[in-house]
Structures are given as C-alpha cells and as structure tokens.
Amino acid sequence: MQKLALKDIITKIKNEEIFEAVSSDYSFTIKIDEYVPYACGAVHDGHQFRKELWKNCIHSEYERWYEEDPETKNMVKMHPIVIAGCDSRFEYDLNRGPVDAVFVTAWGKQLWREPLSETMKAKSLQKHANFYKVVHALIETLESKFGFCTVYDMHSYNWKRWDREVPTWNLGTSNVDNARFGEVIEDWRQSLSEINFPNDIKSTSLINDTFHGNGYFLKYITKNFKNTLVLATEIAKVYCDENEQVIYPEVVNTIEKELKIRIPEHAQAVYNRFKN
C-alpha cells in the first residue's frame, strides 16, 4: 500500500489504474484490484482519533469503539474495490453530512469538555470533504465504464442494547428506489439469511427493522448517481462481545468467506438486470 495525495488518488481512478493506497493524511484507504461494477465501503471501520483531541474528549476509548463498526473492512477486504475510513466517527462521521459530521453530543452524552474551535472542526471537515471527492470520482468512473454499479455499504450495530429480538442482518432501504430495486434488495436479504455462523449464532435478515438506511454515504451516492444502487447492510455485532470489547475472529472469518462468494454473485445478478 502506498501513501498518495488526494489528487493522485483521483487521477489513478479516472485513468482506471490498479492501485492500493492510504490518503496522505491517513484518513482513509482505497484498494482497486480490478474495475468491476460493484464496490464495498466501510465508512465506520476507523478507530483513529487525533491526539490533539484526546484531553478534550469526555468519551473513553471503549465508548468510542462501542459506537464504531470494527472489522467491517475485514469482512469485505478480499473484494476488488474497497474504500474505508481510518478515523473514528467521533472525530467526524463520514455517514453524516458536513453540517452534522462533527459531533457536539454523542448518544446522549456531551462529547467535548470545551467546545471545539473552528480550526479543529475545519481539520476534520477537510478530511470528510476529501473522502467524498474520492467517492464521487470512483462511482463516476464505475457508472461511466459499466452503465450501472452496486455499492455494498457495510455497517454493524449493537444488538444487546435492544429490548426485543433483532435481526442478524438489517438492510436499510428508505432512501433508495424500492419500486425499481425492490426485487434485488429482497434477493440480497435472502442471501444474507442463508449464512451459517459458528457458535450457534442465529442467521436472520430483515429490511428496515432496526435501521432504515439514512446515512450520508448512501444518500450522497444515490443523489448524485442515478444508476448506482447502495445497499446499507448492517450486521448485529454477533462477531464480538460489544460489552467486553472482544472480537471473535472465527466469526469475522466466516462472514468474510461467505461475503466473498455472495457479494459478487449478487452484484453480477444486479448488473445483468440493470446494465441497459
């Protein structure tokens, strides 16, 4: 993996070059092994937190980890095109628009001991803006080359804090064209429900049960690109102990192996249906 400036990453994408890079400020990674009509994103995978913010932050390292989506990049790392955030959503949230990306409060708790200066906010928002410049270049290139593409927008959620049974997988579809894409969304839901997990973990999948797909990553792509379907795909954190901050590698490995087969199969079916 090489370190590249923003303009060089965008140039490589527009030239359809094969490369793997981390941005020069280490805020995100992108890998393109091959240009195919689908991509995977893991915007909340990151845990980095600028050191100059540490003393001012009220939330502990564990509290930040608890609301992030650890391992979501690893679940899709074998796919040809993967873009992922490196920074914690507590610095700036890539799944919120620029106005709301830098938190004041987080999950009902004040985040900062002293309000952030405009300079501090600007540093974070510049990284947010740079990420979306790359997203725009990537989807623009894929749509232009293939006519249609699918983005698998990977997230996770804390299931133990719900007071009812919740699905292993949730698809959020409230901001995509369900009249157009409803059947392939259902195909994706069905495929996910068929995954066999170790440790007697149940495999269930529902649409718009716990979350509804209101993230900015999905909304940005959907607004700007009419021939790209974004599938906000959330897995309950059955792959870790969310209360003890312990990852279960055998479960992560199972998810990775299953998605290595299921995502390309589904993406190809979607492409065959909508490419014209």
For the record, what CATH class applies? Alpha Beta
| Rg calculated over all Cα atoms | 18 Å
Number of helices: 7
Strand order of the biggest β-sheet: 1-2-3-5-4-8-11-9-10
> Share of helix among residues?
25-40%
Briefly note the CATH topology name: Aminopeptidase
Say how many strands there are: 13
Mean of the pLDDT scores? 96
User: Which shape, going by the Cα principal axes?
Assistant: globular
- What percentage of amino acids are in beta strands? 15-25%
Number of domains: 1
User: What is the structural class?
Assistant: alpha/beta
Q: Please mark out the parts with pLDDT under 50 across 5 or more consecutive residues, or reply none.
A: none
The topology string of helices and strands comes to EHEEEHHEEEHEEHEHEEEH
How many strands, which pairing sense, and closed or not: the largest β-sheet?
A: 9 strands, mixed
> What distance separates the N and C termini?
35 Å
Describe this structure as you would to a colleague.
With 276 residues, the chain is of the alpha/beta class. It has one domain (2-271): Aminopeptidase (3-Layer(aba) Sandwich), CATH 3.40.630. The chain is built from seven helices and 13 strands. It has helices spanning 6-14, 61-67, 72-76, 118-146, 178-193, 216-224, 249-274, and strands at 2-4, 19-23, 28-32, 38-42, 81-85, 105-106, 109-110, 149-157, 169-172, 205-207, 228-236, 240-241, 246-247. It has a nine-stranded mixed sheet with strand order 1-2-3-5-4-8-11-9-10, sandwiched between helices. A hairpin with a 2-residue loop joins strand 6 (105-106) and strand 7 (109-110). Helix 1 runs parallel beside helix 4, helix 4 (118-146) crosses helix 6 (216-224) and helix 5 packs antiparallel against helix 7 (249-274). The radius of gyration is 18 Å and the shape is globular. The mean pLDDT is 96. It comes from Hyunsoonleella aestuarii. InterPro entries: N-FG_amidohydro (IPR007709). Pfam families: FGase (PF05013).
